Amino acid sequence: MTKLINGKEISASYRAELKEKIASLPVRPGLAVVLVGNDPASQVYVRNKSRACEEVGIYSEKYTLPEETTREQLLSLIAQLNESPAIHGILVQLPLPRHLDPEEVILAIDPRKDVDAFHPVNVGKIMIGNFDFLPCTPAGVMEMLRRSGIDPAGKECVVIGRSNIVGKPMAMLLLHANATVTVCHSKTRDLAAVCRRADILVSAVGKPRFVTADMVKEGAVVIDVGTNRDENGKLIGDVDFDAVSQKTSYISPVPGGVGPMTITMLLRNTVTAAEKIAAEQAKQG
Ligand code: NAP
Question: Which residues line ligand 1 (CB under 6 A)?
C-alpha cells in the first residue's frame, strides 16, 4: 500500500525544531517580504510567509507597494533592506508587474540576504555544490524525501519541468544526492516512457492531472510540486492522485505536500542567513 508523504506534518515538526533553534540564537533572524501590486495569489503567499515567521519567532517586515511603483523606488527599498541590521533575508514576491525587470531586482539583493536563492551568485554556488541557501521548493522536496527515509543515491530520478525556480535546481539537488537524473520538458519525446523509468518522479509542470497512472512505474515515489485549480476552483496538483497512488510506494498530495515545505525552507534560509551574517560581524569585531 502506498504511503503518504505528508508535507504538512513534516513541516510542523521542522518548524518546531526551528523555533527551538531560533530561541537559542544570539540574534533574532529577520525577514523582509516585498509585494508590488495587487495579485491576489501573491497577497495570500505573502500573508502566509509573514504568519509562518511569527509562528517560529522570526522578526518580519512586510512592504506592500502599489502597482505603479517605479524601478527606482523598488531598488531604493532593496538597497535600504540590504543595509538594515534587523533584516537577514529579503524576498521580493514574484511575479512583478510587467514594467519591472525581475532579473534586475534579484541582482540588487545582497546575495547573503537572498533567501529565495535566485541571485546568480547563489545559483552558481548550488551548481558547484558549495551553497549557503537552497531554493525553497526543491529544498522542501529533498527534506520530504529525507524525512521519509528515501535516499535518492543510485536511483533513477525524473524531473518534469525545467524552470529556474523548480525544475533545474531540483535536478541539481538530486544529482548532488547521487541520483541519476533526467530532466523533461515540453519538447521531450515519449514523456510517458521516460517517466516510467523513474524510481523517483517529481512533477513541476503546472497542469492538472498531467501525470497519469500509465506514466508511473509500480512502486515508484511520486512528488507533486504542481499547484493548479480545478473546474470548481479547488487546489490540485499535476498528478492524477487517485489512479497514480494505486501504483506508488510513496506519494505526496496537493494540498498538504510540497506547499507547506516551501515556506518552511524559507524560514530555514532566513535562520541560516542570520547565523552567517552574525558570524561575519563577530569575526570583524
Ligand atoms: P513553469 O516555469 O511554467 O515551468 C513549467 C515546466 O513544465 C516547463 O519547463 C515546461 O517545459 C514544462 N512543461 C509544460 N508542458 C509540458 C508538457 N506537455 N510536457 C512536459 N513538460 C511540460 O512553472 P514553475 O514555476 O516551474 O512551476 C511549476 C508548477 O509548480 C506550477 O504549478 C507552480 O504553481 C508550482 N509551484 C509550486 C510551488 C509550491 O510551493 N508548491 C512552488 C513553485 C511552483 P518548457 O520549458 O519546454 O516550456
Answer: 137, 160-163, 165-167, 184-188, 191, 204-206, 225-228, 258-259, 262
